[in-house]
Model the fold of this input.
Amino acid sequence: MKTDKFQNKYRIPSARAVWHDYNSGDYFITICTSERLHYFGEINNGDIILNALGQKLDELIGKIKIHNPYCEIPLYQIMPNHVHLIVCIDGRDAACRDAACHVSTENAEINAKRDAACHVSTNGNGTNNKRTVKNEKMRDIAEECGLLSTAMGGLKSALTKYANLNKIKFGWQTRFHDHIIRSQEEMNMIATYIENNVTTWENDKFHTK
Done:
């Protein structure tokens, strides 16, 4: 888990407006496992003991900027059946949108076209010139997801792929919970909640045995 002092390093100078396209801003994200099953490990004596799947999730979160340079996760906590994250999205650089096409989104039928877009390379060279027009159209579809959805969908997809390759039973809840962080005070409250989540597990609304 990230241990840097959140409030000292990541500050919001003022309350933000509403971001309708989810291509920039700061968010409190919660992603749950299917049926809230304990796929990531267990809490023992106030500590989270991650299993192989939980350790892989920890690794993927730490490397999220490799494929999503517009995305930063300064603070997160993996729990037995969910993960809390503070996600900062900066979509000002148009190049970030191209990078977004290296990750996949949900596998649900409603997102099939968007999934396809995220698997298409947008780099044009001598061998890909014939696909340039098609790739540009697919990239436009991918942008409709919003960079937040693209990054979180890619994270979920990568862990699911790892589980499948290693024959580990696993499933995510279809969607994720997102909340726009609008002020420094709200940021501090959420950071405190995340940092204390393990010690308050038994009273957590996501708690299951």
Summary: Confidence is low (pLDDT under 50) at residues 1-7, 12-20, 94-144.
